[in-house]
Amino acid sequence: MAAETKLGRMFGGVMMGKLSTLWTFYSTPRRFKSRARIKKIQEKGMAKHIKMVRKKSRFFSRHWKGIPDEDWRRFPLVNKEIMMENLQEYLTVDIDVESAKKMAVEAEKSRDFNQTLKGYTVGFSSGTSGSRGMHIVSQAEQDRWAGYMLARGLDGSIFGKHKIGLFLRANSNTYQSVSSSRIKFQFYDLLRPLQDLVSELMHDRPDILIAPPSILRYLADEKIMIQFRKIVSVAEVLTPLDRGIIEQHFRCIVHQFYTSTEGEIAATCEHGTLHLNEETMVIEKEWIDKEKGQFHPIISDFKRKTQPIIRYRQNDILVLKKDPCPCGDARQAISEIIGRQDDIFEFESTSGKREIVVPDLIRRATLQMSKQIESYFVEQINTNEINVMIRPKPDQVDMSGFDQLWASKDIIPPKVNFPEYEYQPSAVKMRRIRRSF
Question: How much of the chain is in helix, strand and coil states, percent to nearest 5?
Answer without folding.
Answer: 35, 25, 40
